[in-house]
């Protein structure tokens, strides 16, 4: 009988331990789940505060219908806006980078447009492309890039210096391969920041100086464009690492305060699913070839038409953009004419 009671007590003790373990696991799951839910909702609300639509609406004038980031080939224009010298008012777009994404290939093409590129800006004639932002902000800049490249710009994002630095700091810095020794002054202290040839991890302040330097680069604006694309690639690579997924809340807060975009957070979440497994070696970097042009009004960079046409065709093919509508008052697009004639 005594032996029977010992067995019963032992079984009850095991059940009690098992119950406590299950309760602890359940509590742990609730805490972790609650944390992730809170983080997700906070990130969602923060990121959605950066949403700012374009006056044209969701659809480009060069599209027949609106596209979806997760399902369709799309384009994004990143505008690096320098507005600290004007107290946050107006400013100019020192950086213009066009990215096209194709979900079937899970591939990306990236093109920098030099700030001095000679283009036609509606209502202002031929001038530097960087002036489009001064004349008409993001609206006129998007339209000018569309007209220049003959592709629709579906999404835009304006990023100021503050956002650039804070996002990189939240990611724990980015690694770059410095092409040669040089220095650039800090935007914070005005002291020189020195860069040595070779691999180096940069914080936000250093990365901004690295991306801004132009005068000490033998290739001028083109060398700077390559360094800017290198940093964007490094940000994408770093942001998709598992340890930085947990920082989504902090990063979203930084974005909401310093970035404007017509990309909704719900679309960004769909993008993450469609492009899962995306590798930065799938990023194809394109270049606009041209020649120096010195006029009385200053220096310009004039694209070589034949080379520019090849870039346009490559971007159009990546976007699967074979048929376009015509912006009111502009000449007919040859691709549209071709498609209409073929009945496609």
Key features of this structure:
alpha+beta; 6-stranded mixed β-sheet; two-stranded antiparallel sheet; elongated; LCP family protein
Describe the structure.
This protein is α+β, with helices and mostly antiparallel strands. It contains 10 helices and 14 strands. The strands form 5 sheets. The protein has a 6-stranded mixed sheet with strand order 11-6-1-2-3-12, sandwiched between helices. Strand 13 and strand 14 form a beta hairpin. Helix 1 packs parallel to helix 7, helix 3 runs antiparallel to helix 7 and helix 4 runs antiparallel to helix 5. The longest helix is centred in the N-terminal third of the chain and has 47 residues. It is elongated, with a radius of gyration of 25 Å. The C terminus is likely disordered.
């Amino acid at each position: 009988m005594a032996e029977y009671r010992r067995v019963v007590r032992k079984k009850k003790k095991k059940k009690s331990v098992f119950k406590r373990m299950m309760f602890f696991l359940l509590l742990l799951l609730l805490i972790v789940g609650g944390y992730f839910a809170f983080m997700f909702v906070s990130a969602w609300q923060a990121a959605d505060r950066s949403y700012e639509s374009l006056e044209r609406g969701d659809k480009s004038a060069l599209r027949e219908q609106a596209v979806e980031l997760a399902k369709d080939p799309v384009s994004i224009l990143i505008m690096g806006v320098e507005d600290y010298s004007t107290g946050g008012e107006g400013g100019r777009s020192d950086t213009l980078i066009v990215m096209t994404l194709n979900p079937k290939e899970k591939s990306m093409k990236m093109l920098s447009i030099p700030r001095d590129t000679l283009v036609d800006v509606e209502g202002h004639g031929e001038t530097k492309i960087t002036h489009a932002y001064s004349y008409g902000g993001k609206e006129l800049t998007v339209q000018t890039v569309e007209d220049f490249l003959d592709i629709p710009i579906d999404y835009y994002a304006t990023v100021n210096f503050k956002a650039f630095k804070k996002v990189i700091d939240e990611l724990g810095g980015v690694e770059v391969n410095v092409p040669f020794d040089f220095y650039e002054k800090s935007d914070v202290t005005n002291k020189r920041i020195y860069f040595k040839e070779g691999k180096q991890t940069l914080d936000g302040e250093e990365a901004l100086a690295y991306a801004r330097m132009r005068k000490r680069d033998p290739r001028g604006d083109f060398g700077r464009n390559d360094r800017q694309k290198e940093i964007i690639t490094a940000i994408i690579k770093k942001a998709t690492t598992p340890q930085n997924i947990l920082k989504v809340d902090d990063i979203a807060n930084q974005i909401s305060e310093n970035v404007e975009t017509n990309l909704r957070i719900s679309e960004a979440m769909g993008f993450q699913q469609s492009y899962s497994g995306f590798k930065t070696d799938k990023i194809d970097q394109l270049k606009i070839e041209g020649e120096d042009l010195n006029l009385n009004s200053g220096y310009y960079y004039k694209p070589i038409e034949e080379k520019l046409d090849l870039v346009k065709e490559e971007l159009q093919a990546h976007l699967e953009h074979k048929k376009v509508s015509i912006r009111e008052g502009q000449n007919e697009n040859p691709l549209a004419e071709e498609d209409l004639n073929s009945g496609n």
